[in-house]
Amino acid sequence: MSAWLRPGMFVSLCAVAVVAGCGGKRAAAPASAPATAPSATAPATTGASTAPSAGALQAEAQSAATGDIPDNQVFLTFRNAVADYSMKYPEGWAQNGAGGRLTFRDKNNIVRVVVLKRPPATAATIRRDLAALKGARVRSGPQRLTISGAPAFKVVYTTQSASNPVTGKRVTLLVDRYYLGHAGKEAIVDLGTPVGVDNVDAYRLMIESFRWR
Questions:
Q1: pLDDT tens for residues 5-55?
Q2: How far apart (Å, rounded) are the C-alpha atoms in residues 98 and 112?
Q3: Each residue of 132-156: pLDDT tens digit?
Q4: Residue 124 Cα distances to 84, 131, 132, 141, angstroms
Q5: Distance (Å, rounded) from C-alpha 128 to C-alpha 213?
Q6: Which end of the chain is least crowded, N or C, by CB within 10 Å?
Q7: Which of 10-14, 72-76, 167-171 has the lowest mean pLDDT?
Q8: Domain holding 150: CATH number?
């Protein structure tokens, strides 16, 4: 060590050297492990829902006026490859939903098909379903009948829409509900139309066209 270095300077010079060394080239920090995103696998699309039932249909108070389905209406066949059924519907109606829950709609003319995984309905299970329908008023049923050669049930109920914010009026929807069971699945078909609109023939054609695949 040179004579001109005073006591204590060696330590200081070493500290400076260390700092200078850090400033010249920093040691790479250990790479942190990449964050693992939680799995976001979408549930597989199935042909039936595990929901206990289907809610009541509701009209839209602000929807334009609905008229009768005309006698010359063209019907197309909708084939649901996921839920394994087919049914006719009026050409031009909007389709919404997929798989086990699908709706066809023209203003407040509404047809909905919900396919559930559960045993065939009985009068007792249907009454339990109806008791849970919020805002619905049952008018008749359950009635036993045959649809396309298979046993089924029919129920009729009504619901009221929310008040129109401008006119304050409500739309009362008259709904024919059908329960159709097959191979551990059950289709609940609701065909709704505003009171005063006559869609009896068209809706009969639609429900009688229902076929399990």
A1: 444 443 343 333 333 444 444 444 444 333 333 333 333 344 555 445 689
A2: 11
A3: 888 899 999 899 999 988 899 999 9
A4: 26, 11, 13, 11
A5: 28
A6: N
A7: 10-14
A8: 3.40.1000.10
Burial class (CB within 10 angstroms; exposed 0-12, middle 13-18, buried 19+) of 166: exposed
Residue whose structure tokens are 């739309």: 171
With respect to residue 49, please indicate whether it lies within any of the assigned structural domains: no
- The count of structural domains within the chain is 1
Residue 184 resides in a domain: yes
* Phi, psi torsion values for 146, nearest 5 degrees: -120, 130
| Residue (of 106, 128, 114) closest to 190 by Cα position | 114
Three-state SS at 97: strand
Which residues span the domain enclosing 205? 75-212
User: Looking at the domain assignment, is residue 16 inside a domain?
Assistant: no
Burial class of 177 by CB neighbour count within 10 A (0 to 12, 13 to 18, 19+):
buried
Reference 155, options 172, 133, 132, 176; nearest CA is 176
Whole-angstrom Cα distance, residue 65 to residue 71?
18
Phi then psi for residue 150, to 5 deg, are -115, 145
Q: How far apart are CA 162 and CA 171, in angstroms?
A: 8
Q: Flag whether 67 is in a domain.
A: no
Residue with the two structure tokens 């939903």? 97
Q: How far is CA 126 from the centre of its chain?
A: 21
Cβ–Cβ under 8 Å, residues 203 and 186: no
